[in-house]
Amino acid sequence: MSKILITGATGNIGFELIGFLSKLESPKNSVAGVRDIDRAKAKFHKYSDLEYTHFDFTNPETFDNALNGIEKVFLLRPPNIANVDKYFKPFITKIKENKVNKIVFLSVQGVEKSKVIPHHKIEQLIINNKLDYVFIRPSYFMQNLTTTLLPDIQNNREIILPSGNAKFNWVDIKNIAEATAILLNQFDHYKNQIVEITGLENKSFESVTSIINSIVTHPIKYRNVSPFHFYRIKKQQGLPRGMIIVMLLLHYLPRFQKEPKISSSYKKLTGKNPTDLKTFVEREKVLLDK
Questions:
Q1: Which of 60, 199, 211, 269 has the fewest other C-beta atoms within 10 Å?
Q2: Is residue 14 part of a domain?
Q3: Are strands 202-203 and 168-171 parallel, antiparallel or unpaired?
């Protein structure tokens, strides 16, 4: 039985991915790579067939054991880890040494035009190590509204970003996870391909704020700030420098890029249309209206 190591298993995408993998008719072969196995077991209590292994990007001593018996790896970059050479290069080296030759990497849409973001370097590491891959390049996560941006929304009723009027394509993590499960399950069919997973809406943060305000009881506002001001604000809030830099790149560079392309990959893979923003906000109203 082929086994899939799921990195970032307890995160938003990892959690949803394991759920979708469990629904497929293929054998229950997911292995959750986590730092705290007891905590993960509590989170995944519904999945009795799920296996667990101790895995930590910051601890290379966990790599060999986590890769034992693994055929495929689902790889993502945790938001707080930006140093590719320090954390990802050793892990990808170990993947090759353990003769694991199938990687599905969660990259980002437009990575080919933004060589400064960590995802570009990770893609190149995988290619340079001659590993078979599927690069999933999703657009901007709707769930950023309910994770990274949520403290400002809940505490100050505002979204603070250096994004100007740039348009982002908005995609639901549930859609990404569902597509990823299919790509993992049918890896050989999609081997060495790049798959963009997007929603159907290109909207600025000003427009998204209007959608939110049409649904929530307590309105919010969008405050556009300079990159330097954004850095100072987030530094004062205690965010790690690496995470702030990645947030800056993801939210500022689109001001100078073309409007995102809308992909039909999700519909081709699933036969369904992706989630729209109004549906997402209605689903997450309780969080956004606190």
A1: 60
A2: yes
A3: antiparallel
Q: Determine the Cα–Cα distance for residues 143 and 175; give it in Å rounded to an integer.
A: 11
Indicate whether 230 belongs to any domain: no
CB 255 within 8 A of CB 163: yes
Beta bridge partners of 115: none
- Cross-strand partners of 105: 75, 135
Give the number of domains in the chain.
Answer: 1
Q: What is the CATH number of the domain that holds 178?
A: 3.40.50.720
Q: How far apart are CA 269 and CA 197, in angstroms?
A: 10
pLDDT single digits (tens) 166-209? 999 999 999 999 999 999 999 999 999 999 999 999 999 999 99
Q: What is the total residue count of the chain?
A: 290
Dig out the tokens for 266 from the structure. Answer: 């999700």
Instruction: Determine the structural domain holding residue 11 and report its residue range.
Output: 4-141+171-197
Q: Would you give the DSSP letter of residue 202? A: E
Prediction pTM value: 0.93
With a cut of 90, say whether residue 113 has pLDDT above it. no
